[in-house]
Amino acid sequence: MSGSDSLSCLSRVARLVLLVLIVGMCRSLGAQAPTPSPTPTLSDSEAQRQARERMVHEQIEDRGVHDKRVLAAMRKVPRHVFVPPEMQSHAYADGPLPIGYGQTISQPYIVAFMTEALELKPQDKVLEIGTGSGYQAAVLAELVREVFSIEIVEPLGKEAEERLKRLGYSNLKVKIADGYRGWPEAAPFDAIIVTAAPNHVPPALVNQLREGGRMVLPVGRLPQDLIRVRRTPNGVKQESLLPVLFVPMTGEAQKK
Ligand SMILES: C[S@@+](CC[C@H](N)C(=O)[O-])C[C@H]1O[C@@H](n2cnc3c(N)ncnc32)[C@H](O)[C@@H]1O
Fold first, then answer.
1. CATH 3.40.50.150: does it fit domain 3-255?
2. Which of 35, 78, 131, 144 is surrounded by the fewest CB atoms within 10 Å?
3. Max CA-CA distance within the chain?
């Protein structure tokens, strides 16, 4: 291994350790505050726009996400509207944040990285498993024709649905359910993103990918492996993208 390889390996490990700490903090904060906070106002100040611009430049572009449409969506969606009021001053910080019920809104870099990895086209139909705050769903809705998002924790899903409606997203549907078996009535999908980690790739989700479709999901135990699954004419191909740390996928996934 060269010096720069071991340095970049060290920095990956350091980032991972930091993520473990932040998510641990988020989960314990989430566990202490299970009641959803009132929806924050939709206002977007000049200071918040500037913070978002810095977030995109320093946390996302500088780390190698270059898809112009993804960067534009990350610049546009007001992340502070998706976090509880007491977390708003941290909305553009470089990490996940607690959103209640022991759940988190993902780190902005990971949202951008996963969105870029989906290789989205404007006419695509996308499925998300794990609506959470609705932030990732909003980013997707900026980029594609139709978004379907499933959340297992009812109050979180309802709150996200209401927030997304108030922000004016009309190309997006939220369903309260276990996403392990996907959304067969709306399949096939051009892309699927899973934002909670199962310990295996859910077969029903692979089956709901259109030929040529891409799925990006965290899989396994800590650290999880962020993988991309492609459905090609020659079968299903899988590649490993990044070590990550997500909350576990609950429901049926945990019984397998
Ligand atoms: C890391 S959070 C998602 C962040 C979210 N995408 C956002 O932008 O805020 C993971 C979410 O997946 C949800 N989840 C976990 N298991 C699930 C399942 N089987 N089906 C649907 N949602 C699930 C959790 O309740 C949680 O809200």
1. yes
2. 35
3. 52
